[in-house]
Amino acid sequence: MQAQLNKDERIEIRISPHDKRIFQKAQKLSGDKSFSSFIVRVVKKEAEEIVAKNDTVIASERDRNIFFKTVFGDSKPNSKLIEAAEKYKSQADLL
Taking the domains of the chain in order of start, what are their residue ranges? Predict the structure, then answer.
């Protein structure tokens, strides 16, 4: 069940007659009941994709920075990492 929409906000745009005809034709072909609902649905979908892509890029950039700082930084390994390395080395010697 979709939450009730708050329709207090309004957006006004100017478009060419050609664009409006294309948009209206697409709206009729899409099955949307109104021109406004079509425009909102299409713009919202595109906006969500743009935001998701941007969020992915930002997360990737953040992860890249963390990785390089960890690998090439001057921080010392903690005790758990040292223990894990020693355990790995002892198991590798058995092979």
Answer: 17-94
Nearest to 27 by CA among 49, 14, 42: 42
Task: Report the distance separating Cα 40 and Cα 13, nearest Å.
Answer: 13
Q: Which of 89, 85, 88 is nearest to 76 (CA)?
A: 85
First-to-final CA distance of the chain? 59
User: Measuring CA to CA, how many Å separate 22 from each of 38, 56, 90?
Assistant: 12, 32, 70
pLDDT string in tens for the chain (95-residue length): 455 667 788 899 999 999 999 999 999 999 999 999 999 999 999 999 999 998 888 888 888 888 888 888 887 888 999 999 999 988 877 76
d(CA 45, CA 35): 16
Q: What is the pTM of this model?
A: 0.56
Task: Name residues whose C-beta falls within 8 Å of residue 34's C-beta, 6 or more positions apart in sequence.
Answer: 27
